[in-house]
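Risk register update: the risk of archive-format incompatibility is retired. Evidence:
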Amino acid sequence: MIEVRKLVKRFGLKTVLRGMDFHVEPGEFVALIGPNGAGKTTFLRILASLARPSMGEVQIAGFQLPAQAAAVRRRLGVVSHQPLLYADLTAEENLTFYARMYGLHNIEKRIAAVLEMIGLTNRRRDLVRTYSRGMQQRLAIGRAVLHDPEVMLFDEPYTGLDQDASAMLDDVLRTVAARGRTVVMTSHDLARAEDLATRFDVLSRGVIAASATHEDLGKDNLLSFYKKALAGS
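Archived output:
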């Protein structure tokens, strides 16, 4: 579903990604972990077609980036540090806009189901600019899953969420995974990543330094694996 070869990303004289290879099978849930500045957000922005690679090949669902970005975007759901919402529209209006953009049918029914899932039914007619950061993140999650995309990209999605909202996101991610969708998530919460993901990739110094499944971890926990990967990178 995702194939990345020899990916390089430079910002001026600074090289963030240094010939990175990355491969995800359909239905895998990959937690991308690494220290601050490792390039995780930059990488997800490239996968989301929000940034262009300096060199290398990126393919999602058989489509090349950046050349076929429009086809890729139709198959993506993205939750990033920016909610990508219209502050002067209501939650309902935001979701209606995106539903029409994706050409969804039975829009009202789908929006009602999403609002119920993210716990915003009672605030659906309030302007997004009146929402707290956590509520905006809830709505961003709703926007991302609205069209039931093949590939989900989550960049530190728990940022700004309270305990109830975090539990809601856990349920959303488990539902998405159970439906066979492909998920790539960056997270500093190793315990949560270990509970949700099927594979763990450590990004360090611009490349994947180590990769493991639950079976590969054996008696180690994810924190132990992570420390060993960074020490050897």
